[in-house]
Structure formats: structure tokens, C-alpha cells
Amino acid sequence: xxxxxxxxxxxxxxxxxxxxxxxxxxxxxxxxxxxxxxxxxxxxxxxxxxxxxxxxxxxxxxxxxxxxxxxxxxxxxxxxxxxxxxxxxxxxxxxxxxxxxxxxxxxxxxxxxxxxxxxxxxxxxxxxxxxxxxxxxxxxxxxxxxxxxxxxxxxxxxxxxxxxxxxxxxxxxxxxxxxxxxxxxxxxxxxxxxxxxxxxxxxxxxxxxxxxxxxxxxxxxxxxxxxxxxxxxxxxxxxxxxxxxxxxxxxxxxxxxxxxxxxxxxxxxxxxxxxxxxxxxxxxxxxxxxxxxxxxxxxxxxxxxxxxxxxxxxxxxxxxxxxxxxxxxxxxxxxxxxxxxxxxxxxxxxxxxxxxxxxxxxxxxxxxxxxxxxxxxxxxxxxxxxxxxxxxxxxxxxxxxxxxxxxxxxxxxxxxxxxxxxxxxxxxxxxxxxxxxxxxxxxxxxxxxxxxxxxxxxxxxxxxxxxxxxxxxxxxxxxxxxxxxxxxxxxxxxxxxxxxxxxxxxxxxxxxxxxxxxxxxxxxxxxxxxxxxxxxxxxxxxxxxxxxxxxxxxxxxxxxxxxxxxxxxxxxxxxxxxxxxxxxxxxxxxxxxxxxxxxxxxxxxxxxxxxxxxxxxxxxxxxxxxxxxxxxxxxxxxxxxxxxxxxxxxxxxxxxxxxxxxxxxxxxxxxxxxxxxxxxxxxxxxxxxxxxxxxxxxxxxxxxxxxxxxxxxxxxxxxxxxxxxxxxxxxxxxxxxxxxxxxxxxxxxxxxxxxxxxxxxxxxxxxxxxxxxxxxxxxxxxxxxxxxxxxxxxxxxxxxxxxxxxxxxxxxxxxxxxxxxxxxxxxxxxxxxxxxxxxxxxxxxxxxxxxxxxxxxxxxxxxxxxxxxxxxxxxxxxxxxxxxxxxxxxxxxxxxxxxxxxxxxxxxxxxxxxxxxxxxxxxxxxxxxxxxxxxxxxxxxxxxxxxxxxxxxxxxxxxxxxxxxxxxxxxxxxxxxxxxxxxxxxxxxxxxxxxxxxxxxxxxxxxxxxxxxxxxxxxxxxxxxxxxxxxxxxxxxxxxxxxxxxxxxxxxxxxxxxxxxxxxxxxxxxxxxxxxxxxxxxxxxxxxxxxxxxxxxxxxxxxxxxxxxxxxxxxxxxxxxxxxxxxxxxxxxxxxxxxxxxxxxxxxxxxxxxxxxxxxxxxxxxxxxxxxxxxxxxxxxxxxxxxxxxxxxxxxxxxxxxxxxxxxxxxxxxxxxxxxxxxxxxxxxxxxxxxxxxxxxxxxxxxxxxxxxxxxxxxxxxxxxxxxxxxxxxxxxxxxxxxxxxxxxxxxxxxxxxxxxxxxxxxxxxxxxxxxxxxxxxxxxxxxxxxxxxxxxxxxxxxxxxxxxxxxxxxxxxxxxxxxxxxxxxxxxxxxxxxxxxxxxxxxxxxxxxxxxxxxxxxxxx
Length: 1406
Known about the structure:
seven-stranded mixed sheet, 27% helix, globular
């Protein structure tokens, strides 16, 4: 098999276009649906890191296929949404068709239609002809066929053959293809699952979760009525047993059913074709002859015992095939066979058969020799899937030659079928398939003394033992055969073998290998099944629950690209947990074996984040330019999220993923565009997105008008907007677009026009988005709008505020309208003040322009009862509507009586998120990590909790119809966090018709809700718990004598206790807990001395500012206070003094302190104080009276030099200054000062000394951004490096540090822009930072950290290649300090808490 030479030439001719222009991710689903790719090949392509790599591998696969598959590939390209992709498809097809041998006709999609055997099979021409005739008939007119007959009568093979014939020869079912569904003897629950699986294949979602088979059948019927192409498909339901199931299969307009039974009602609405339960004598003889020499046919026809055997088994094809496999010769053999078949009363006799079919099975099996019989009986252990030879070898404990030889023998006796894998399969596997009836027979205990349950456990135990012997109980060493890793845990549970289960489920190496083959979701399913097993058997499941909880909660930290499961455990497992200990041991073993690099956390911070509610986290996006994800409504199927990947870049893509499995449902390539927003419809079928054709997010403003497009994921096409005149347009320019959260019979979406006044509803149709009559036009611009959660109503509001020039007064009024979506009329109007005052604990309507609070947000809900939550500045309240039933409800009078304050904050409240049933409110704090959750019952706030997160960027929403809260960290990790709150609410109300995901049944820690004693709730009450806890005032960290040391100043404000705490060693053990007698503001550690310095700045003796220092020695031993000293900093009274930085110079034992002084509105200055021997000191003002400064930045500071950049106030100028730090006599000397225009920018080159003590080697030079000027001053190499990083508008000011052949470039804000070593240049983006400039010039590698995401990345110092990324929930990399060897790092979080990471060495004890 393979493509023709001509098509190969076409591919090679257009290889460049295929690799560079075709977005492979977009067409993977179509390639799989057309059976061009297998599931495994789809996974291989998805694992590729770039589109070019995917395209190259796709070309290799295509060349292994036939010309017909290449034609299908062209067909898929021609139907792509992008015109240039369509053109590529047309060109490829045109050139391929130039060869007359190329088949250009598209094939019919035969989804899951089983193959027909090539041996030991006769074509029942008449039977197949009857089926084919009716298939051609229903292809034209529709209808239902029932092929009935006893099991083994050849129904499935005949129907498969007839379908293939009519599809390939007569071109039937081209429009919709064929869907094959195996039913069998299953329960209603199983049938429900199978029909749900069919819905997923068809892309069907539902309005609400179907509770029974009637509902799911109605959804299928409705979908097919509205989807012409799919309705033309043929649906095959194979082996239907129960009469009651037929009504649930009526949704198909064209269907064929196979069944062992026929019921009276079947003939009323099916064309019934009997399967000839028996072969004719001639057909039976033909099949028997397949097992013999050609000259034996006549002897068979004339032998009366043969004819009697045929009639005894009813001519059943399966039985005839088994008898043929016996190869009976003598009359005695035939007589004995007949006796077995005709024997009555067998205890395992199969129902609905007049003869003993199981006896026929037994007869065939008994003809095997003892060993072959024993081995064959074991095959019943496997699932009813294709079984790979490797697993059979493990079960039989034999080599490949022996296994394949016996399988060939069993196949020749028709006991099983052998299937060779596709030639493109790199493993070249051989599979065997057993008939369902045979599997059922093999699972029956052969001994009356042993129950079937016991026998079943024995079978599974044998398989597990076989696997164990083959891999020597190193479960991870077994080679993937497509079955072992997928089903090992299932068989171990069925075997009820606790020892094997413990070994497997505690073997992290096995989990590592499994994750290379299957999705993380599959590993979680194994864990969940194992936990259920343990609980049923009353065993401890704590460890497995912990691992499952970890896989849910920290999924976003698992790097699925490299599958480094051990490193994931090292970073995410709890301190001192058994999981962490095992991971450390494995890491040590790996390092010894392959010298790989591993890191671990040795010092953990005290975690104050509330992880009891945190359930899951998933990465959705690549950078902070990606949009906030949008979710579907789980009432209509699996929960899906839509989001962007690489927004604003050339490979910008919209992704849609199933939340539970995180499998891709859609990948839509947008190209070079910036996407403002993405929306997904409630049923997950449509995605709407607004784009701006710009390459940089800087060019995009929120107020820009947005061009919206809508894409239908079912048909893989963009859907047009259709106005009232019938004119179609591919895009719609409007300000906002929102889908209705509930799908009704007439689904709708809402748009707000560019003028922010016109509101428009649109009907969602299969052929387009149809405009309805305009809903409303407002006098003023809309301030807010949204659908209510039940989708029945729409709320929007605007301000009527208007100053009256004549009276110099205003109209203090806002109007909100509630509209019925279905009938398009205004249900209710609210009038409320835009501005309010707070007087004597009462909230009143403001009457003058000097108001207290302004209306910022309205949240209207009518799920259970009407509720209107409003935010006025710092106040969240509820407008009660008791006694106000009129259509217009005014709160302009008597506002105080109807406004119920719920929460009062110290800062403006930006938003409130309300659960659908109004029982839970979530209030985010601006730029803070905290979320306040309020339980709201019967119109009153009852209790609250404060949820502390590890990030401060909040984009919140509840999952529709639940208490599951999603929070997207856009500006940091691009991670979607899920918090499950329903466990703690304990409310009487329960959401109905919403699914409960297995993801959320993990046992978690308890969280205590606090009753609200006094109303309203305030920040003071919420923060009272914080005040009673010990808070960190300041902290410092350093390596002293290679030992990590952390110093913290802490205070308990409630008790008034102030302490100095010293933590030492890699585990950050608390070694010193020293109570202080007065308050200090800063603490400092230095690597060159074992002292800790505490400082305080007071204003007790105005106008002087007193700077106090206390020095403690021997932080590595028993700490002792050396002395306490005071210095006068300033003889005027400045507004504020902040200690900015401190350094210690060992050479002359000098402590340096740099102060930032804000003297007034327009006077910012600097001070440097140098202290020697505590008594000798010098203070220098490094500002001057010529200029007033703002935005002062330290560009570089060491023990000898200081370089600053500051902006000159009331001017467009900036200045760079270079100081030499002398001693306590001369203090500091200004070496250079350069003034420049901020808009023009500046480039500054700083040559660092090659050795730390070589202070005279530091050199600073400056230039304009002119390339010629830089070349003239520094040479072409340095000039080109500057040009590479200074061409962006945001990077007009660049500072280059050079040491030997290494250079590093920063912006004036401290952002790392790039680094070079020799001719190699590495560019960095966004918030890349380093802890000090010197750390980039190392012998091995350098560390870069990202403040927002918390990642620490290690790069090789010579090749500049990324070596390792560290990201952990226990590490907040706001600042990072490394030791000289860079084998250990102290990581500081924003709150002053620390953690330590250390590289694992092979000599360490795991």
C-alpha cells in the first residue's frame, strides 16, 4: 500500500506550501473522521511542538496511504474555512487528477463498520443482495430495516458486506455516511451511555442533562430534523436484544438493525429480513469445504452424518464454522459431534437456541490438545476489544513464535479471528478478536465446584501474574501494546489482588510511562476506580486520594510536553508526604542512571492560601494577551471552554476544550490577528470572536469597535449574519455580543451597537444569525447589560445624569429595564439614584455634586426570586422590592428604606459574582489575593469566609447551575482555577438537571463559615482574623558561608508583640525567635557578614528625621546584639523617607543605605548614608536643586558604583547619573550625568569589572539610538545587539551590561530584554527578571524568573538554551537569590515568605 509515484511527485512539489501554510491542528478531526488517521496518529501529531513538525509527519503518513486517502485530504482542504487553504486543496487535487489512475471520487464515511473476514467465509450472495436492495431503497426514501436471526447466523458480516457494497459500488449514503453502533445484551444505563456517545460523535449537545432514554431520543430526533446532512446518514444498531429499546432508536430516518429476535411490533415499522438462521445444506458444505481439500466437497455432500450435523446445529454459520474447524474425517467423529450438539440439559445451555451452541463451543475446544485448550480458555479474561499478541504472550507465558503459531491454529478452527495492524503502524502488531458469544462462554467456570465470580477473579489474577512475570514486576518496563497500560488497573481490581494493586498504584514509574501513552484523565480514572475498590473493601485510601487530589488541583503545573511526572511531584506534593519521599527517591535513581537534572523544594513557606476549596487548575492560554476563557452550559452536555492561544501572533488560534478530559473539541486558526473576546454558546456548538487586524496588543484599545465572527463547530464553517433585508455579511461590527445562557426552541444572541445605545436580538439558525426587530434604543450610552441566568430576561441600564445649565443642578437618576427575551417586551423598569450619600449610618439620595458614592454595577437575578444587587463605590447592597409590584419601580424616594447594605469595603468594590440561585456572593478585592464569600439566604447575609488565593488577578464566574467557581489568572499563569463551594454551603436548595462531574467528588479539608454578627459586613470584620495573626513587616535573605539564611521582622498587632526571626539551613528551620522592645521597619542580611541589621526611621523630634540601626551578630550561631545607634537624616520635614536599598562592603567594613525621599508634591530626592564601625558615618544628598525628579530608578548598584535614571518633573527630559561610592569621608562622587529626551530614548553600555574587587574597571558610555552613532562608538556587534532590543516603542531606553564576551540588555524598568554569548543571542519577553545583574554572568547557567507567572527558568550560560523550568504552588518568585554554585536558590514571595529549591545530586539520599 502507498501513494502512486505521480501523487508523490505532487506532494514533493508542494511540500513547502503544505508545511508552512496548512494549519494541521485545524484538520485533525476531519482526517480522523475520514479514517485517514488513527487515534494514535492523531495523538502523535498533537504531541509535535510546531506546525511544521506536524505537517512533516502528516506527509510521511499520507505517503503510506493510498491515492484515495490523498484525494480525501484534498477534499478536506477544499472545505476549510480559509480561502487560501481551499486554493491549496484545489491545486493539489487538480494536479493529482492529471494522472488517470488517481481516484478522485470521495469515499463514503463508514464509521466503525467492522471488516469482513478474508478466509473461512462464504459470500451469501442472495442474502446480501436482499439487504443491498433495501439499503439502496432507504437511501432514496428513508426507512428502517431489521435483519433478524439467531446469534452466529452471520447477520453482522452480511450487513457489513452489504453496506460496503452499496457504498462503494452504488455510492449510497454519500451525504451523511454510516454510523455503526454495537448494542448487545445491555442494561438501560448502558444503552443510555451508548446513545450519549453517539451524540458526542454527531456533535449534539442538549438543553438540559437528559434523565432517561426518552429525553435523549428526543434530542437526537430534534437534531436530525435540523441537520440535513447528518439526517441522510445510515445508522446501524447491531445486536439489539430487548423489544423495549426499539422506540429509542426511531430518531434515525435511515437505519438497519440486527437482532436475534423479532417482535410483533417490529413488522409494523421495519422491513424485516430474516437472516436465514441456518445455512442451506449447500452453503454449509461450502463453508465446511473451506477447511478441507477441494476434492472433499463431493464426499461432504454425500455423507449423511455431515448433513445430519448441519441440520442438528440449525445450519448456524458460527456453529458450522466451528465444526469446519474440527476437520472431522471418519463417520465416528461425525456421529460423536452430532451427539454433543443434540445433547439436552447442559447447565450452560444458551437461551433461545434449540440446539446446544455452547456444546458446539465445547466440542471445538475439546478437540484442542490439553495445553492449547488450557491457553484458549484463558482468553476470556480480556475485554471485548482487539487483543494484542503481546498481552496474550503475557497471559500464556510464552514467546511470540509460540503465541502466533497457536493463534493461527485457533483461527484456522474459527475459534477466533486474527487481524493484522495497518502497515503504517510502526509496531506492526497482530491482534485477535473473539466473538461476543465465545467470550461469554469462556467466562463461565468450567468446574461446577467453582463459581463464575471466583473463576473470573482467577482469570484476571492469571493475566496480572503473566504481566508481572514478563516485566519482572517492574510494571513500568512493559512495552506499550495498546492494551496493557490502558487496562492493567481494571484487571488488577477484577482480580481483587491487593498486593498487585498496591504495587501498581504506588509505582510512579508506571504512571510516568502511562502518561506518555494516554491522557491524564485516564490516569485519574484509574485512581478513582482504585479508591472506590479500597473503600468497598474498607481499606485506607488516603494516599491515593491525596495523589488524585494533587492531579486535579495542580494539573496546570504538569508539563505535558515532556511528561516529567517525577518533577511535577517534587514541586507539588505536600511537605513530608509519602508521595514526596517516593518522588525524591526516584529522582535520585534517575540522576544516577542518566545524569538528568532534578530540583526539589527543601524549605517550604507557611502557606496561608485556602486550598480546601481549590479543586482543579488548567492552563488556558500562552500569555497575558490571551483572552479570558468563556464556558458553555453543562446542562447541554459536557462543559466546554473557549479561549485563545498565542493571541496577537501569526499563529493565533481559538481553542475549545472539554473541561473534564481537556481534549480538544475545536482548534480554529485565525492567523495574524488580535482577538478582543471569545464567546461560546450555551450548548457549546458556536463560538463568537471579535478580532482586530493588528500584530501588537499595544495597538488595541478596549473602546475600539469589534468585528465579530461566528463559527459553527458542527459543520466547521463560519456562519453569516443576515439582516432584515436578507443581506448576508461574514462579520458584524458592534461593541458587545453575548449568547443567551439557556437554549430555548428559538436560541438567540444579543448585540450592543457601536453607539452603545442600540440593543439588538438575533435568532440563531443553522444557515445563519438572523436579525430580529431592534429591541430598544437608549437615550444615553449603556453602562451594563446581561441575560439573567435562566435566559428568560435581559437587563440593561444607563445613566440619566444631566447637568441643567440654568439651575446648575442635575438629574441624579439611572434607569434599568428588564425585558422578556421570548416575547420582546419590557417587564419592569427600575429608577434608582446614580449618586448616594452616607450620613449617620444611613444611605440617602445625593442632592449635590459632592456625593459620597457613585453607582458602578447592577446585578439583576430572577432564578428563584427577583433580586437586584448594586455596587455604590465601596458599598455592596441589595435593593429590596417588597410591596413594589408595579411595572415601574422607583427608588428615588425612600431609598434608605429599600437599600440593604451587605458589605462595606475600605476600597472601591469592582464586581460581585452571584450564583444562579442567589445564595452565594463572591466579592473580589482590587489588586489583592483575597476573595470574600458571603452566604445569602432569604434576602439576608448569614455568614462569610475569606478565601485567600496565591494570585491577585481575578476573572470570576460560576459554572452555570452550580456552586463551582472558576477564576482565571489572566496576567500571571494563564490558568483557570476551580473552587468547589457546594461542599461547604450545606444549603437546602439543590440545583437540578445539572451534572456532577467525577472531578468534584474528592474528599477535601474543612472550611469554617463565620456568622455575620453585625450587619453590614465590613473589611474591619473580615480582616480581624489577619490582625490576630502574625504578619511580616519586612524580610531579607542571603547565603552566609554557603548556608541559606532568612530574617523576618514580624508583628502581632492584636497582642503588640514584635519579633526578629531567623531561619537557617536548606529546610528553613526556625533557629532564632527574638522578641524586640521597639518597632523596626526594615531588616537586612549580607552574604559577606553574619550580622543582621534592623533599621527604623522616626519623626519623634521634628523637624529632624532620626534613622536608627541595631546590629545583631552571629546569625549562624547564638545571636547577640552588638549595639544600637541613631543618626539624623534630615533637618527638614519631608513627606516620607523609604529605605530603598542596602549593601555591605567587606573591604572597608562599610554599610551603605540608600533612601528615597519624597519632600513634597514636586520634590523627589535621594540620600546615601555610609556607616563604618557604627560610629563613623557620612550622609550625602545625591539630588540637586537644579531639577525636581520623579520616577527614580536604580539601574545598577554594587559596593562601589551606583547608576540611576530619573525623569525631570514638568519636562520631557530624563537624566542618567553615574556615581562612585567612596567611603565615610568622601561618600560619593558624580562621575557622569547625561540628559536626554524621553521620547528619543537612550542606549547605555556598562562594562562590568571582570572581578568583584576590580572596581576601576567599570565603565559607562551613552549614545543616541542612531545605528551609525552606536557603530562608531561601540562597533557593529554591540550596535546590532542594541538594535535587536531597542526597536520597540516600549523599549526606547536600554542598558547593556558587558563582561568579556557576554552581554545582557535591560529596559529602564528592569525587564530583561536579551542576553548574548559570543554570536548567540537570546531574546526575552514580558516580565522576565533576574535577582541581580551579576547573576547573569556565571560559569554554568543563569536563572530568570517571571513575577506574574511565578516561573523560574534556567538557561545554559553558553548555549543560552532553556534547561529547566521551575513552577510550584509553594514557590512565589517575586525575588530570587542563588548561591555561588547556583545549586540552591532562596525564593521570596510578595508577602515576605520564603522557600528554597535545591538541585538534587546523585549522592543525595532520596
